[in-house]
Amino acid sequence: MPQPGSTPLLSSQRWLLAGLASLGIFDASYLLIAHAMGQSLACPQTAIINCDEVVTSQYSVVMGLPVAFWGLLAYLSVVGLSLWPIVGNRLGRATDPTPGTPDGNLFLLRGLTTVMATISSYLVYLMVGVIHGVCLYCIGSFLLSLTLFGIANFWPALTKASGRVVIGGLLVGVLALAALGAPPNQSAAVPGIPGGFPPQPGSGVVPQNGLVPLSEPVYPIPTTSGPAEMALARWLAENGARMYGGYRCPHCFREKELFGRQAFQLIDYVECDPSTSSARVALCKAANIREYPTWEIGGKYYPGEANLEVLAARSNYPGSQAFARHILR
Q1: Residue 300, strand partner residues
Q2: Residue 5 lies in a domain
Q3: Which of 18, 127, 168, 268 is the most buried (most CB within 10 A)?
Q4: Is the whole model's pTM more than 0.85, yes or no?
Q5: With contact defined as beta carbons under 8 Å apart, do 75 and 120 qualify?
Q6: Which domain holds residue 124?
Q7: Distance between CA atoms of 220 and 169, rounded to whole angstroms?
Q8: Which residue, among 223, 41, 211, has the nearest Cα to 135 in the 3D structure?
Q9: For residue 195, what are the contacts with CB-CB under 8 A and spacing of at least 6?
Q10: Do the domain assignments include residue 3?
Q11: Higher per-residue pLDDT: 13 or 121
Q12: Same domain as 228, residue 163
């Protein structure tokens, strides 16, 4: 196998690196925008795949910035380093190294892709071995990092038939992961609450965009209830309505915020997440709850978060509907 660094990269190889890194730019940009806006990712939710749980974990931020930011910076750097010699030559500025002297650009490119592959591998270990979740976007970035590393460092070996199969397989894997990232049912249970980091138990801080500690899965609702919210909550309680949810579900937390902390205390809330001692798993199984939140009103089940006006209509609530808050759609 040729030694890394023994053969310079051709223009076609540099264009390939830039193209693959551009896919990484789109991946990292989407994650960064979703983080900034506090939105759930377009990602299927299964027993194994849970993108939001991974990207809102305590490992999702480095030096105060999301991992996606550093990934975006790295992919942009790969594009810049890959295309710099090509752009320089086309502008009439010789950027090729003098024969017999080290290629500084290639050295930086190979070093950067090596660091990216190493860090990405460690993040995959944290995702699978520590967080116990799978994020399709993170797996896609991992495959891209390995591919960039292989092309930049071992292209002569990878141009053989077996090498082309490896590259093709990695590219197919990235495309397959992209296809799997179809928008999920937005009412599905998503661990983590959009916003920031998990507070320390007992701090009184509302959880924002992080995994809430299992040692204390109860957090104060930040909003205050008005007369209309209190009246609706009493009506729902008197008529036997229930809300099924999970303490790590951001949609459930938003539903609680609509009522406010005083009104929601009147609601018969059933915790379904078995990881906490307050869970009433038997009730959830008996009701065949599959999505959080799910409202039980008048013997019927309504999955998904809903504005208070909707809950009022479902329960034939006769009182004032001057509610202060609404879910933005």
Answers
A1: 297
A2: no
A3: 127
A4: no
A5: no
A6: 11-180
A7: 48
A8: 41
A9: 38, 207, 208, 209, 210
A10: no
A11: 121
A12: no
